[in-house]
What we know:
This protein is mainly alpha-helical. The chain has helices spanning 5-10, 15-38, 44-49, 53-63, 68-81, 86-103, 108-116, 124-131, 135-146, 154-165, 168-175, 180-187, 192-199, 204-215, 222-245. It is 72% helix and 0% strand. It contains 15 helices and no strands. The longest helix has 24 residues, at 15-38. The chain folds into two domains: 5-131, no CATH class; 135-245, Annexin V, domain 1.
Amino acid sequence: MKLDWEFGDRIQCNEAEKKECIALVAEIITMANKAKRNGLLSLVQEADETSHFLLRKGLHMVLEGVNPQMVEKTLQYYVLSGKYRGKELLTRCIIMEGVLAIQNGVNPNIIKELLLSLFGENNYNAYEVEFGDGKNERLKSFFNKIKKSRAATPLSSKLGHTILQLNDQSIQQCLKEISTVDLARALKGIEGKAQIKVFKNLPKRSAAILQETVEHLDLMRESEMTEAQEKVLLIISSLQDREQALPPN
């Protein structure tokens, strides 16, 4: 689809129509979260029951294992052939981009950002007010769930104890040198207090993304956890060696 000034003009609609379309964004984000937790096949019911032709068509193609490029081309042809404007065009763009992102396993938070960009800068807060996911409350609930959890292995216990001995500055420095996925895998098995200490040293947005990643690691192999924990311990050791090598003030 050609994105140009003409497209920007054709996709404009009134505030009431935008509100309806924002509700569709929330619906697709819910699907994206479900697919991430349980796999694409968990969307069978949504594919069968949705009243949106394009959404039904797109989800069925995804569930049937159609190549992503073919799904994209098919959905684009459906949109372009209709010569839609306003709400009709915006709705179909949301569906097309949402289905393709879900099929490609894009993080639901990124899908949300992508879809809301279709509304322009001035409408971002409308989604947060109406459908915001309450990240702070979710994080508090997560802390309550894990705060009494114990280390899963001796290596997990060692990493948790090491983290609890670090000051906030050292933890923040360590966080700069490890990927979100490796960090989530490393945290999964350590005691709750150490996990919470790490989370509290992250910006709120980063903490929310890390929480979501940790919660979706139910099928992680123990070897993956062990490898990630060894990485974190190595980073911590390297940082401590560097600090010791610094000349005294």
